């Protein structure tokens, strides 16, 4: 297990940074940009973006990768100085995953299922754009904090190695 300590911690930090960047991109560019569009454009664009982001690269090197590698880093750091930082990062990211699965994914699925774009205003209203954006902002804050914890865990790891 010793040989996995550094790679799992580096991998957790790397994937957490990637997923944090994705959430932040939605918060700072995608949703503000879509907010200014008409209803039909909003619905069609969001559907396209959401279909595109569900791909092996994002899932492996972002969303699920951050969870699996942070869990692995937690297990490999048991009894070591970086453990508290890695464990906090894992706890924060578990909250992000729960928010994603409980709030954002159901909203994404509902808008993707909509097919009658002639009723785009109603589809957009049912999407609850403000709710999606607010919970995404929570994901940004929590995943950024988790990323910071993992960065500090690398510092602690380096000092104790």
UniProtKB/TrEMBL annotation:
InterPro entries registered for this protein in UniProt: Anthrone_oxy
UniProt key word Isomerase: no
Domain of life: Bacteria
Keywords associated with the record: Membrane, Transmembrane, Transmembrane helix
Transmembrane segments: 6-31, 52-73, 85-107, 133-155
One Pfam family matching this protein: Anthrone_oxy
Name under which the protein is recorded: DUF1772 domain-containing protein
């Amino acid at each position: 297990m010793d040989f996995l300590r550094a790679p799992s911690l580096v991998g957790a930090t790397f994937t957490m940074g990637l997923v944090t960047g994705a959430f932040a991109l939605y918060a700072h560019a995608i949703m503000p940009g879509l907010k200014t569009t008409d209803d039909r454009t909003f619905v069609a664009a969001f559907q396209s973006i959401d279909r595109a982001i569900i791909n092996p690269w994002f899932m492996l090197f972002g969303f699920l990768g951050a969870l699996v590698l942070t869990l692995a880093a937690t297990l490999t750091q048991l009894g070591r100085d970086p453990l508290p930082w890695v464990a906090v990062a894992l706890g924060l990211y578990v909250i992000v995953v729960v928010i994603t699965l409980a709030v954002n994914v159901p909203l994404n699925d509902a808008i993707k299922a909509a097919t009658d774009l002639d009723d785009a205003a109603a589809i957009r209203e049912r999407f609850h754009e403000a709710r999606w954006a607010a919970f995404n902002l929570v994901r940004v804050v929590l995943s950024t904090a988790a990323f910071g914890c993992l960065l500090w865990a690398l510092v602690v790891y380096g000092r104790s190695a």
